[in-house]
Fold this sequence. Notes:
Layout: H1 30-33, H2 46-59, E1 67-71, E2 86-89, H3 95-105, E3 110-116, H4 117-121, H5 125-134, E4 138-144, E5 147-148, E6 154-155, H6 179-186, E7 190-195, H7 199-211, E8 215-221, E9 244-245, H8 255-262, E10 269-275, H9 281-295, H10 301-312
Parallel strand pairs: 1-2, 1-3, 3-4, 4-8, 7-8, 9-10
Antiparallel strand pairs: 5-6, 7-10
Helix pairs in contact: 2-7, 6-8
The structure holds thiamine diphosphate (TPP), iron/sulfur cluster and magnesium ion.
Thiamine diphosphate (TPP) binds next to β3, α4 and β5.
Amino acid sequence: xxxxxxxxxxxxxxxxxxxxxxxxxxxxxKKEIAADHPTWxxxxxxxxxxxxxxKLIEKRKLWHENITTVAGIGxxxxxPYFVQAHGVHYIHGRALPFATGISLSRPDxxxxxxxxxxxxxxxxxxxxxxxxxxxxxMTYVVMDNWVYGLTKKQTSPTSPLGFKSKTDQWGAVDxxxxxxxxxxxAGATFVARTTSTNxxxxxxxxxxxxxxxxxxxxxxxxxxVEFYEGAFDAANPRKGGVFKEVPKDHDVxxxxxxxxxxxxxxxxxxxxxxxxxxxxxxxKEAEIQRGMMEKVxxxxxxxxxxxxFDRMK
Length: 313
Ligand SMILES: Cc1ncc(C[n+]2csc(CCOP(=O)(O)OP(=O)(O)O)c2C)c(N)n1
Ligand code: SF4
Ligand SMILES: [Mg+2]
């Protein structure tokens, strides 16, 4: 390897903790992972998602230095503030490009991205499609509350027809997007749906997405009690609704079947809809990098630069 090039370590499928030789490191406790007290409204569904992220960190023995939490802007996107680890509260809608940079340059980390429906599908809609099609390794949890919460009740791209908000006082007239259909058709290689009122299920989906080597997307219904109360009651058995898991005979590798499942009327199904093990951009880039390093083996920095200039002549 040339002294000019930093060696990129191989990505482990699941981030492993660098324990000192011979020393067993204990998993972090919730107290060690929790940062500021969340500023969400009492009863907001986002509390549950945060608590389950803590649980995931605890259960999978992730260490502070391995935890990377990225978000855009919104109530849900305040997430990284509440986690005692590396994290970024980035520009509205731009969490995914930022997370992509981390994912590609630090293969030893597992990147988690949290955000809202507006952040993901409105201002960040373009980035969502491209991150999915490139199959960048990360876990993206969209806390979908069908409204812009932080800015106090505007129609979001997932608000149903007729939803009355500050931007649609007579009721929303634009057809909502279906996040599951969008994720599948954009090329996401892991697509799941859950709801913050079913903690065991949220944890199971987050674990499965984390273990997936590729772009893992989870739509997590998360109620905004302030601006869209009761939106997901139909999916909550405690409120008289039904929580239907993906049928046992559903083939998660069947894209068309997954797309059909995503089209079922609300409250629809919950669980893993789609999974595909195609190579990630991370793996492809690492391969190119290995080849390049082989080509410039033994050369000094200036010689590599000179080679580049010569090539561009
Ligand atoms: C470039 C830009 N445009 C608009 C805003 C205002 N803004 C902040 S959050 C937000 C929507 C958030 O909605 P969502 O992503 O659904 O998150 P929630 O608050 O519902 O969790 C908007 C429009 C902004 N911060 N930056
Ligand atoms: S406004 Fe809605 S989304 Fe925001 S913290 Fe309050 S309940 Fe949660
Ligand atoms: Mg929202």
